[in-house]
Amino acid sequence: AGAQVSGLAFSRDGRVVVAANRAGGSVTWFHRQGLRLEPAETVAFTHPTNEVSDVAISPDGRTVLAAVRE
Asked: How many Cβ atoms from other residues are within 10 Å of residue 47's Cβ?
């Protein structure tokens, strides 16, 4: 995950985990492989000084929502 993980979300089937990176202006998602989490991708979508405080995955698993404090 990125800097200062502050929130986690799990897909309905439990195979995807998304982390909000408070100090990085980004989210990181992982694929679950048994008991391990394998990093898939980190996406920076706001300035690093903005705090990404929480994250959610839509019920259909197609959309990730993140809360940002500027």
From this structure: 9
Going by the DSSP 8-state scheme, the letter that residue 59 receives in this structure is T
- Amino acid in the structure at residue 28: T
| pTM of the shown model | 0.86
Structure tokens belonging to residue 55: 């994250």
Is the alpha carbon torsion for 57, 58, 59, 61 positive or negative? negative
Question: pLDDT, tens digit, for every residue of 3-23?
Answer: 788 899 999 999 999 999 988
Structure tokens at 10: 């799990």
Please give the angle made by the CA atoms of 60, 63 and 66, to the nearest 5 degrees.
130
Our CA angle for 10, 13, 17, nearest 5°, is 25
Distance from C-alpha of 40 to C-alpha of 36, rounded to nearest angstrom = 12
